[in-house]
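Hi everyone,

Forwarding the result from last night's run.
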Amino acid sequence: MDYLRRAEELFDTAVTIRRDLHQIPEISLDLPKTTAYVMEKLKEMGYDPHPCGGGVVATVGKPGGKTVLLRGDMDALPMREESGLPFASTCDCAHTCGHDFHAAMLLIAAQMLKENEAALQGTVKLMFQPGEETFLGAKSMIQDGVLESPKPDAALAYHVTAGQMPLGMFVYRREGTMMNSSDNFKIVIQGKGSHGAYPDTGIDPINIAAHLVLALESIVAREIKSTQASVLTIGKLVAGDAGNIIPDKAELYGTLRCDCAEEREFILKRLHEVTQSVAQTYRGSAEVIILAGTAPLVNDPEAVDAFVGYMRELPVPNRTEYPNMHTASSEDWAEILQRIPGAYMFLSAGFPDGPSYNQHHPKVVFNEEVLKTGPAYLAHCATRWLEDHN
């Protein structure tokens, strides 16, 4: 099948799906309207989809051969949209990261793969994932068996990008870390409340928090090689109700980003050690709670070579490549790539001379023309990988 031509024929359908999903944004693992929409579309195509870890899974092709996993994440962000689009979200959530595109692309790829099912030389597993923004979705689906029955032999996922970028560009990294790990944490500091005029009768958790912020920042500044791209940030401190009262408790919220799994493990260990020792120094106690996290994203070189090669086979207008990309942002597709050889790439959905807002901005606007190529890449790469590996 000429997937690029067929994707162009289905472009209006893709736009409709994307805009439908854009108007029902939901967050984290709780996507009842989104998953119902996806399952209904898959059933209309002739699939037998089933729930999995808050998401949806379906398969197409011939059992007994090898299996390729394709992912489209579906969750939105807890923020108001200010794009001005006629189909903009009107609730307190918004698809400002482009996951509505990912789900639409995978649904159109699903339709094309179903139409071409007789020619598939193996199985394609479709993974519609929740909770990417909270780094909970991939783990949830893994725990619920997305990598079983059948177990994928290769995996591929795309992410659209906005901003002033040329349409037709795709970005990847063959070797080494492409995206940093992420660990979001909370530190609960327990002190003893007292009147502000008599601090000696209490244990000040705000004082502990202040010393702890400086001590934690010193881990990266003084214990990590300067060649490693690690960042530890405290972005929120919650404590107290009045200026003349020492509270019982304080809470710190932060994030850790690392481009190396070994450094991540070391800093997480030191995060616990430093937190406890600083709290004890000032007669309090503290606990580190990891809220969510994901590993560094590292592609499989052979998978990248294969999928990039297949992408080059399609006559996509103005196609350009940007290899060797590294970013400090994070993506829980890394959890899949720790277990299955695969690849992750960015597809430009920007406007070279248009809006410059990037993902997660309330005014971001994505170029829907990417819906002509993204589905074609997914379907073509899966089909060609099965041809070459069965």
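The first helix runs from residue 3 to 9.

Cheers,
N.
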